[in-house]
Amino acid sequence: MRLLVTGGCGFIGSNFVRWVLANHPEDEILNLDKLTYAGNPENLREIATYPGYGFQKGDISNSEDVAEAFSWSPDAVVNFAAETHVDRSIASPEAFVTTDVLGTYRLLEQARQREIRFLQISTDEVYGSIERGSFNEESPLQPNSPYSASKAGADLLVRSYVRTYGLDAVIVRSSNNYGPFQYPEKVIPLFLTNLIEGRKVPLYGEGKNVRDWLYVQDNCRAIDTVLRQGVRGEVYNIGGGHELTNVALTDAILEAMEAGRDSIQFVPDRLGHDLRYSVDTSKIKSLGWEPEHDFQAGLRETAEWYKAHEDWWRPLKSGEFRRYYLEKYGDI
């Protein structure tokens, strides 16, 4: 299979590229990535010369870049390309609408014209917050941030192309991912790297918000399963089955790093911070997928990876990121 993977230099995208090439060596991948601050070619350095891998720098919201990528004649598209950080979407929502909505439209148009399969990578955040129980794939979309609203808009575009044009498209909505190569603005790598640096960890509000945690390799297997087995027009939730309050997550990180609770610095809560996300994963499990990683073991593996790869993340935490961090949290 010839796969056009957009956003393949990001966290989940780069893990997916490596996973596919390791498990389907006959497949070929063209990686279309704009290389924004979170898209890092170093994530794929070891496969840059792999015979089944190619790279094109380009923006999915640019029709010429997208047309050039599709001239490679892919059999399917997996769209990871997105602006994804909630805090940044609150401060600067336009980039999220441009990439997540307009960019998805550009890809859908090419996929429609060429009649190829399209897999949209979405998020459980499109459902909004839930106090009890879990969202299933039929739950209404009630996004509460510019980020989740832009992803919900993209999902609805995909749905419309299935219904209107008969496009062979599927959507996956995953819970919070963690693992190697995650940009250090996200909570787990931020806390791990801060602790390595001897800094405190900034915890929003009282830490009562609840998230489900999914190891990135489990997510890659799930995405690949849906790509090859998913039914046209269907949505599949992906979750790790490990719900934790943010303060419990922080305690687990402190334990993995052998640090004390005096390393916690409580900071003002995020605007419109959703209390709890939870998804029902019975639908994707019917395809034979199950998460394999225990959270505690996965967190320990992740902590060891960041300890061993300071040369990867330290440059990322300088420059623009450092300015963003100081503005957001102060010098903690």
UniProtKB/TrEMBL annotation:
**Is NAD among the key words of this record?**
yes
* Cofactor(s) of this protein: NAD(+)
The catalytic activity, as recorded, is: dTDP-alpha-D-glucose = dTDP-4-dehydro-6-deoxy-alpha-D-glucose + H2O
- List the SUPFAM superfamilies: NAD(P)-binding Rossmann-fold domains (SSF51735)
Q: Which residues form a coiled coil?
A: none
Family label: Belongs to the NAD(P)-dependent epimerase/dehydratase family. dTDP-glucose dehydratase subfamily.
Instruction: Provide the species name.
Output: Candidatus Solincola sediminis
Give the InterPro entries listed for this entry: dTDP_Gluc_deHydtase, NAD(P)-bd_dom, NAD(P)-bd_dom_sf
List the signal peptide residues: none
GO-annotated biological processes: nucleotide-sugar metabolic process
Mind listing the UniProt keywords for this protein, alphabetically? Answer: Lyase, NAD
Could you tell me the EC number(s) of this protein?
4.2.1.46
> What is this protein's name?
dTDP-glucose 4,6-dehydratase
Transmembrane stretches in the record are none
- Please give the CDD domains that the UniProt record associates with this protein: dTDP_GD_SDR_e
Molecular-function GO terms, alphabetical:
dTDP-glucose 4,6-dehydratase activity
